[in-house]
Amino acid sequence: MAPSMSVEELILRLYEIQAVKFGSFTLKSGLQSPIYFDLRVIVSHPILLQEVSEHVWQLATQVKASFVSVCGVPYTALPIATVVCVNHGVPMLLRRKEAKDYGTKKLIEGQFQPGDLCLVIEDVVTSGSSVLDTVEALSAEGLLVRDAIVLLDREQGGKHMLQEKGINLHCVCSLTQLLSVLLANGKLDKDTVDSVHRFVQLNQTQDGAAPPSTKHLKKALTYGERASLAEHPLAKKLFRIMEDKQTNLCVAVDIVDWQKLLQLAERLGPYICCLKTHVDILSVNNFQSFRSTFGPQLNELAVRYNFLIFEDRKFADIGNTVQHQYGGGIYYISDWAHIVTAHAVSGPGVIEGLKKVVNGGSATSSNRGCLLIAEMSSDGALATGGYTKGESSACCACPGGGVVRGCMQMGVTRADRTSCLQFVMLRLRNSLLAKLLLRSGFYGLPGCLHSIAEAASQTRA
Predict the structure, then answer these.
(1) Helix 46-62 vs helix 7-16: crossing angle, to nearest 10
(2) If you write DSSP's letter for every residue of 220-259 in order, what string do you get?
(3) Is the Cβ–Cβ distance between 137 and 108 less than 8 Å?
(4) Model confidence at 126, in pLDDT bands (50, 70, 90)?
(5) Using CA atoms, how far apart are residues 330 and 322, in angstroms rounded to an integer?
């Protein structure tokens, strides 16, 4: 069916129900805006919801958008997409903002085939980032998106950004058209219209990012500044290493030859802040020679080149067993590893076991730390949902806080916005294939990678 309201009548009706407001409003970015859209109220006006949906469908038909399914951007556009699909018999897909840790655990709900074309529907577009998030979620499932329909385009750069990503954005109504209709019908004065136009011109988005507020903008902290905020001495040391060496490269050396591991540590030492090991995968024939050589030499290299040793042991047993695994056994991990990892699945005893080793040994609490593992990325991992929350609670329950502060005697660390341990991870396996996981805030990456690749190839040779 065709819409019974014209676009002008639709605009006036939206104004009447206060779906569009004028005044002074604080946006999510912290900016003060003279205009605000609250299109969520449309769901309380079924006739208007029907009209909006028909205008969306009519526009999709006019631009000859090709699609076999429709997906609304959560959450305001969901009812619009639902009405469109019900009225015109089009299959609908539902995108979750986050996957549940139970059931199917899907981000995209509904039936579809990889390669299907999907039409995305949105209520308002500013930067286009919400549309892009939905497109990326659909693309991850093999769906294709060429067109998106939006009820109202704020004309702040979203259309251009999406076009650069290969998505054609079509709007039922532009902000310019809305202001013109409201001015012509005596709903606004010229000063208000001019004020909105100035705001839009001064706050164009770039690359899909919302314009920052000069009032609320927070400066990105340097690693030196993060060091001053961190409370655990080991966290402070790590940030200072990152600042002094201008690197946050952490190399995960997952090889089985312990002598080659030491060779790599010597060649890569100048370029890294951290060396991550898995000591229990090392092939050792003579444990006496290994113990007298491996730990002392690795520690000497760490001191010489100023990096930390990160043993990814993932302790998970009861406290007494962990105490022996950490402080004794065949590896004597506490003698040489600055940081270890652990699961809290067995309760707080695992942390107590680690602390007892530190308190009773030659190492001090200021140069030893533990990272509690709350999640794992491997397929079928059970560390989700309640377990993840419990792990975080265990971290925060440690004496002295939890966020990169941890226990006063044994540092339990996890990340937050001000003092997160941001690594660029270079993983070296037996084949010496490098897999780079990029995180924000890295320094001098190309040069470091060139040097590391060169060192790795020398070691392989």
Answers:
(1) 150
(2) PPPHHHHHHH--SHHHHHHHHHHHHHT--EEEEE--SBHH
(3) yes
(4) very high
(5) 13
> What SS3 class is residue 268?
helix
What percentage of residues in the chain have a pLDDT greater than 70? 75
Q: Report d(CA 381, CA 379) in Å as an integer.
A: 6
State the pairing for strand pair 168-174/249-253.
unpaired
Q: Say which residue the tokens 């941001």 belong to.
A: 422
Q: How far is CA 267 from the centre of its chain?
A: 32
416 a catalytic residue: no
- Compute CA distances 182 → 32, 67, 178, 193, whole Å: 21, 34, 6, 9
Write out pLDDT tens, residues 240-259.
998 899 888 888 888 899 99
pLDDT at 212 over 60: no
Residue 189 corresponds to which tokens in the numbers above? 């004065």
Please write the tens of the pLDDT for every residue from 436-457: 322 323 333 334 444 444 444 4
Give the three-class secondary structure for 122.
Answer: strand
- Give how far Cα 344 sits from Cα of 115, 132, 236, 414, Å: 43, 37, 24, 13
For 333, the 3-state DSSP assignment is helix
User: Element (H or E) spanning 458, and its range?
Assistant: helix 445-460
> Distance from CA of residue 3 to its chain's centroid?
41
Average confidence (pLDDT) over 380-389 = 66
Name the active-site residue from 38, 254, 280, 317. 317
200: exposed, middle or buried (Cβ count in 10 Å: 0-12, 13-18, 19+): buried
Q: Are 309 and 279 in contact (CB under 8 A)?
A: no
Distance CA 241, CA 272 (A): 9
What predicted TM-score, i.e. pTM, was given to this entire model? Answer: 0.50
Q: Of 237, 314, 335, 379, which residue is the catalytic one?
A: 314
Task: Scan for tokens 């409370």, then name that residue.
Answer: 231
pLDDT in tens, 71-91: 999 999 999 999 999 999 999
314 has catalytic annotation = yes
Cα–Cα distance for residue pair 442/295, rounded to 1 Å: 29
The span from the CA of 227 to the CA of 307, in Å, is 15
